[in-house]
Write a structure and sequence with these properties.
The complex is a heterodimer of chains A (486) and B (88). Chain A is built from 21 helices and 15 strands. By secondary structure, chain A is of the alpha/beta class. Chain A folds into 3 domains: 7-107 and 175-215, no CATH class; 112-168, Alpha-Beta Plaits (2-Layer Sandwich), CATH 3.30.70.20; 221-477, Fe-only Hydrogenase (Larger Subunit), Chain L, domain 3 (3-Layer(aba) Sandwich), CATH 3.40.950.10. In chain A, β12 (336-341), α16 and β13 form a beta-alpha-beta unit. Chain B has a single domain, classed as Glutaredoxin (3-Layer(aba) Sandwich). In chain B, a hairpin with a 2-residue loop joins β3 (60-62) and β4 (65-67). The relative contact order of chain B is 0.26. Classes of the chains: A alpha/beta (486), B alpha+beta (88). The interface between A and B is medium-sized, with 29 and 21 residues. The complex binds FE2/S2 (inorganic) cluster. The site of FE2/S2 (inorganic) cluster has 12 residues of chain B, from α1.
C-alpha cells in the first residue's frame, strides 16, 4: 500500500497548495472561491469528467475537504468563500477524520456483481431463478443486474453454467481490514465510523481519490499567519526521506514556513523504547505469554473497537508522540503543538491527547512548501536540541520497534519478535487467535503496524518506501545507539 | 556517449507533486536501454516558480524536450521518440 502517483493525488496536493496560497494572500475567501475556476478556466481541457461544470463541481468538493469540512452534508449553493470564512473561525476540528466524495465515488463500479459478455442469454436463466431479490432482468437477450436490488449474495454467480458472472473488486472495501467501508445499493460509499479505525487504507486504495481526509491546515496556519501563538512541530520518525534534503535542512525549511520550533518524535520513541523494554521484562517475569506493541494509532483503534480481548496483552507504554508532546507542552505551555504525520490514524490519537493540538500530514507539509516557494535543499542545516537515537529514528519501519526494544533489553536473546507488517483481514485474524489462545506460538513480542512496511507506507507519505529507506539508512549510520540508564 | 539524457527535477515542488515516484525510472531505463540513455536527478529546474506553474509539476527534461506532469509512461514514450529520431 502506501501512496501512489495517481491523478487524484496530484489534484489533492495541488488543491492544498492553492488553498494555502490563497490563505496567505490578502483575500483568502475570494481566492478560495475561485480555485475551481483557476484550475479549469474557460476553454480548458477537461481531463477526467464529462464537462467542465461537473469537473469544477468536483474540484469544489475537494477544496471543501481541504478546508476541513465533511462532504456528506453538502449544501450545494453554499460558496467556497463562505466555507473559507467558517474554516478560519472554527475552534474545534471534526471528530471523524475521513469523508467520502460521492461524485468521485460514482466513477467506480455501482454493484459488486457483474454480468460479463460471456453471458449466452440462455433460456433456462438459472441466474434469474437463483436470485432471491429479483435483481436480474433480461436486457437485449442478456442478463443484467439491477444494482439497487442486488445484495451481492453471489447466488447467480454460482448458478451460471458459463461462469459469465463475476464479482468486481471495490478497492476501498477490499483494503479495509475491518469492513467499515461499503458501497450502498445506490453505489455510493459510506464509512461506518463506529467500525472505522482510521487506518487510511481506503484513502490510499481508492483510484478515484474519493476518500478524503478533513484537513486541519487552516486551523494550524491561522496561528502561523497571525503570530498570536507559537506553533511547534513534532515530526514523526518516518519523515526522513519523504522530502528532498536532510532532516536538518527540513527543520530550517519548516521554520522558514512559520513554525517556531521543530522536534523529532524519535526523541519520544527513545522514551517509549526504554519503558517498553522494562515493561516487557516485567511481564515476562510474571509469566505473561506475550506482549504487543502500542505505538500504532490504527492498531490501538482496532483493539478498542474490534479486539478488546487483546488489550491485556498490549503494552501500556505511551506512544512516541505521547512522550514528545508532553515534553513540548511542558516547555512551551502556551504554544500550539502540531504532529506531522504519515497517516490519518494519528488524527484520532491526537484528538484524544490534550497535548497535541493539530495534525498535519506529509502531503500537507509538502503543499505548504510549494505554496511558500521554499526549496528545502537550499536551507541551512539546523540541529535538534536533543538528537534522537538510531533506534528511535528507525521506529517507522517494520520491525523497527521490536528491534529497538530488543536492543535495550537485559537479555536480548530472550526477546522473540512476531512482526505484523500491515493490518489486513488476514493478519487481524492472527491477532484474534493470539488473544483467544492467550498465546503467540514461539514468540513473545508482537509488533503491530497497520501499514505494510510500517509508517513509511502510510497513506499520506510522499516517497516510495524503498527509496525513503535508503535515505533513512544514511542518517541511521551517523546516529548514536540508544543507551539504557538505570 | 549516451544518445538521450533524462533529467528528473528533484526540487521540492516536483518531488512533492510526484517526482519521488519517478525515481523508479533509473532502474527501468537502465534495464531497457542500457548505456544509450542516462537518467539523473536535478535541483529545481525553475519551471515551477511562475504563478501557479507548480500545478504542472513534476517536470522532466528529455534532451531538450520538457515534459509536464511527468509520469513514468510519458517519459518512456519520449525516450523512444528520441531514440527513433536518432536512428534516422
Ligand atoms: S521543483 Fe521542479 S521545476 Fe522547480
Amino acid at each position: 500500500m502506501g501512496n501512489n502517483n495517481s491523478q487524484s493525488i496530484h489534484l489533492k496536493k495541488e488543491i492544498l497548495a492553492r488553498i494555502i496560497e490563497a490563505f496567505f494572500s490578502d483575500n483568502f475567501e475570494e481566492r478560495t472561491r475561485l480555485i475551481p475556476y483557476d484550475m479549469r478556466p474557460k476553454g480548458a481541457d477537461v481531463p477526467y469528467r464529462c464537462c467542465i461544470y461537473k469537473e469544477r463541481a468536483i474540484l469544489k468538493e475537494r477544496v471543501k475537504a481541504g478546508l476541513g469540512f465533511a462532504l456528506e452534508d453538502d449544501i450545494e449553493y453554499k460558496l467556497l468563500s463562505e466555507y473559507a470564512k467558517e474554516a478560519v473561525k472554527r475552534e474545534k476540528v471534526d471528530e471523524n477524520p475521513l469523508t467520502v466524495l460521492d461524485a468521485a465515488c460514482a466513477g467506480c463500479v455501482p454493484s459488486r456483481i457483474y454480468v460479463t459478455d460471456l453471458c449466452k442469454g440462455c433460456v433456462a436463466r438459472p441466474c434469474q431463478a437463483a436470485c432471491k431479490f429479483g435483481a436480474i432482468e433480461m436486457v437485449d437477450g442478456k442478463s443484467k443486474i439491477d444494482g439497487s436490488k442486488c445484495k451481492s449474495c453471489k447466488m447467480c454467480m454460482n448458478a451460471c453454467p458459463y461462469n459469465a458472472i463475476v464479482k468486481l473488486a471495490v478497492p476501498c472495501e477490499d483494503a479495509c481490514p475491518v469492513g467499515a467501508i461499503q458501497k450502498d445499493e445506490n453505489g455510493i460509499t459510506r464509512i461506518d465510523f463506529e467500525q472505522c479505525i482510521s487506518c487510511g487504507k481506503c484513502v490510499a486504495a481508492c483510484p478515484f481519490g474519493a476518500v478524503h481526509e478533513k484537513s486541519q491546515i487552516i486551523d494550524i496556519l491561522k496561528y502561523i499567519k497571525s503570530g498570536s501563538k507559537k506553533v511547534i512541530a513534532m515530526v514523526a520518525p518516518s519523515i526522513i526521506g519523504q522530502l528532498p534534503g536532510s532532516i536538518y535542512q527540513l527543520k530550517s525549511a519548516m521554520k522558514k514556513a512559520g513554525f517556531s520550533e521543530v522536534f523529532e518524535v524519535a526523541q519520544g520513541a527513545d522514551i517509549t523504547t526504554i519503558n517498553e523494554a522494562k515493561e516487557f521484562e516485567e511481564r515476562m517475569e510474571n509469566g505473561a505469554p506475550f506482549m504487543t506493541t502500542s505505538c500504532c494509532a490504527g492498531y490501538n483503534q482496532f483493539v478498542k473497537k474490534h479486539l478488546p480481548e487483546i488489550k491485556e496483552f498490549r503494552s501500556t507504554t505511551g506512544t512516541p508522540l505521547y512522550y514528545i508532546a508532553e515534553i513540548v507542552k511542558k516547555q512551551y505551555p502556551d504554544a500550539i503543538t502540531v504532529f506531522v504525520s504519515p497517516c490519518v490514524a494519528k488524527r484520532k490519537e491526537s484528538m484524544e491527547n490534550p497535548n497535541v493540538d493539530y495534525v498535519m500530514t506529509y502531503e500537507e507539509l509538502g503543499a505548504l512548501f510549494i505554496a511558500k516557494r521554499i526549496e528545502i535543499t537550499e536551507c541551512e542545516e539546523d540541529k535538534f536540541e536533543t538528537e534522537s537515537s538510531k533506534q528511535g529514528r528507525n521506529f517507522g519501519v517494520t520491525s523497527g520497534v521490536a528491534d529497538a526494544v530488543k536492543s535495550v533489553c537485559k537479555n536480548p536473546e530472550e526477546v522473540k519478535p512476531y512482526i505484523i507488517s500491515g493490518l489486513t483481514k488476514e493478519t487481524a485474524k492472527d491477532l484474534k487467535k493470539f488473544a483467544k489462545d492467550k498465546s503467540c506460538p514461539g514468540c513473545n513480542l508482537v509488533e503491530v503496524m497497520c501499514c505494510e512496511g510500517g509508517c513509511i507506507g502510510g497513506n499520506a507519505t510522499i516517497n516510495i518506501p524503498r527509496v525513503a529507506k535508503k535515505e533513512l539508512k544514511t542518517l541511521l549510520d551517523e546516529s548514536k545507539d540508544l543507551e539504557r540508564k538505570e | 556517449m549516451a544518445k538521450v539524457n533524462v533529467k528528473i527535477c528533484m526540487g521540492t515542488t516536483c518531488f512533492v507533486m510526484g517526482a519521488s515516484q519517478l525515481q523508479e525510472l533509473v532502474d527501468i531505463v537502465n534495464k531497457r536501454y542500457g548505456e544509450d540513455v542516462v537518467v539523473v536527478g536535478s535541483t529545481c529546474l525553475n519551471y515551477c516558480t511562475d504563478n501557479s506553474e507548480y500545478s504542472k509539476a513534476p517536470y522532466v527534461r528529455v534532451n531538450d524536450t520538457v515534459i509536464q506532469e511527468a509520469t513514468i509512461d510519458k517519459v518512456l514514450q519520449e525516450i523512444d521518440r528520441k531514440l527513433k529520431e536518432d536512428g534516422k
